[in-house]
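Subgroup meeting minutes
Present: P.N., E.W., G.H.
Scribe: E.W.

1. P.N. recapped why we're keeping a running log of single-chain structure predictions: easier to compare across weeks, and new members can see raw inputs and outputs side by side.
2. G.H. added today's entry (155 aa).
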Amino acid sequence: MALVFRVVRQKYANQPLDVTGTWLNGGRWNPPGVGILYTAEHPALALVEILVHMPRVPYDELPTYRLFSLEIPDESRRVLTSDQLPAYWNENAYARSQTILTDWLADPDVLALGVPSSVMPDGINYLLHPTHAQYKSVRVIEEKALVIDPRLWHQ
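Output recorded in log:
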């Protein structure tokens, strides 16, 4: 088994494996109408991925987040490196990158697909597909408050 990490807003902490948000809004790797679960290989990378999307508000007005450690089957993951992806994979506009994984999104051959982080390309984000048969085996191992050090936050 392997561990991956996910940051969730406190108000959604009772549903850490829910993909409604990505189904509604899409993300870098999926268009709206296709929900997947975004996770990271390390808690620090999960934090960085959240920081880049946080609202520009004073530190004391930041939303509250929870950090989840998830256990996934080790044999059901595959990693794509940046040299296996089109050059535009990390563009700030998602229109083109949302089409790169069309085949996997339609028919996932693995539960977890590792992709480089656009924020830290040496880090790996794992996309978990909820229609894969092994999605039901994803287990929450730990949940705790995500503490964001004030030194990381500049208005």
